[in-house]
Predict the structure.
Amino acid sequence: MRLMSCLVALLVSLAFGEALAANEFNAYSKPSFEASQQQNKPLIVHIHADWCPTCVRQVPALSQALADPSLAGVEAFRVNFDTDREFLMTHRVPNQSVILVFKNGKEVLRLNGVTNAQQIKSKIISALQ
């Protein structure tokens, strides 16, 4: 019985943690992205594909960066590489595992395939200063 309680608690905490991680990024939609750009919000966009191992490794690194207090006002979007073709064409993104950072409506940083959490965080913070 005690083992069962521990397993249930573990599953609940894992599910809750996964839900929090998923909520850090907004699913991309053109209207919401454009509205955020028009408001001159600082934005992070992750070009992601579920089948991409580099993209999967970028997720916790980006979550760690977004947890930094200096990025508290940043809005984050996850663009699906397989379905959000219009975004990819507009922003000239030829491949997945790309991180874009926008400041005042303009792209100020593009990281291709970077998975190092500290490097991602420091480059984003630097680009948004």
User: Anything to note?
Assistant: The chain is about 50% helix and 20% strand.
